[in-house]
Amino acid sequence: MKVSECGAQLVETIPIGLTYNTTIKSKSTFDALIGLVSSAKFTIDIASIYWTLQGTDVMPHPNNSSAKGTKLLNAFMDLSKYRSVKIRIASNNNIFGDNSTDLALLQGLAQIREINFNRLMGGVLHTNFVIVDNKHLYIGSANMDWRALTQIKELGIVLNDCHTLANDLSKIFQVFWYLGVENSTIPKQWPQELTTTFNASNPLLISINQTNYSVYLSSSPKPLCPFGRTNDIDAILFIIENADKFIHISVMNYYPLFLFQKNIHFWPLIDNALKSAVIDRKVNVRLLVSHTNYTRESLLIFLHSLAAFNDEKIFGATIEVKLFVVPTFTPFQASIPYARMYHDKYMVTDKTAYIGTSNWAADYFVNSAGNGFIITSKNNTSAEHNLRNDLQSIFQRDWDSSYAKYV
Fold first, then answer.
1. Transmembrane segments in this chain: where (predicted)?
2. I want to staple 7 with a disulfide (CB 3.0 to 4.6 A). Which of 160, 229, 241, 246 is the partner?
């Protein structure tokens, strides 16, 4: 199916103080989200892990770096007050026990459903997307959190005038909306209107920025995939297995484990796929992973096991692994909880770009709800506006930066 011309742009949050030797033109997450909100005429649907857009949601004495979050929250409130835009929000039921009052402020201005994913699947709603007027959308790593606008490295994509794709993402939102009803259960079969024809086997053919692409959206976990929807982990494995030359991965976490169960279990699906790509197909792999004060010690064990494949003489290709550290430049930055981290969740190969919302550990794909945006250029050109090339440039900039060090 061919649709009309869409526009798209990769969007990033570069934490305050972070500088690069390479300049890449990418829109800021804040500007992208404010732009989407400002464009709304009828409806906005938002799926987000949690809401902490006000500075005091996170810490008692925030500085002006939280101002962008407050401005975004006010923009949502003004939409309903002054422009009669219908807002629906699907989120978790206060899983972090924080001091946020954001959703309370939006009560009466927006329809809000808080989902008990722990009861339903033993996990959380771990996605971030916005749909405006069923034609514009954002999907990416950034939470509805002021830190995601100024203090955390984030990556996502904004698409404009993409009616067919926005409609497909709306079907995913409807799944979450359904589960937000009190005492809801996951149906054995989802309603026919939530099925999709766009998936890894039959992607949507679409023109974006005057370049032809095939695109589809993925979801996790499997029980939340109506008929036709590609499971998120299956999409990731499919991309890895179809790469011919290279696989570059940028993620906050990488654990081939179930992290949050009573007993830790091994889950080697991605690990095995990467090693197979190197050994069987001679595909070069690079993995860029965040390292913070909150990082588990076991991360380095698993990364070293991958880095052991960095020997072209033996394997004919290599796995290279780096840790990305977002420094703190001021005492205030050091005092912000769960900030100054590399929160990206994407992969780019010689064929395909993947932008997701899940951390790369088993729980996020098996027990929690996340989504992916998968795009492949049909002619695979080196055009300036080829989104895969743009994402590769961002990866290369971060990989070559002084903030990334080999394990």
1. none
2. 160
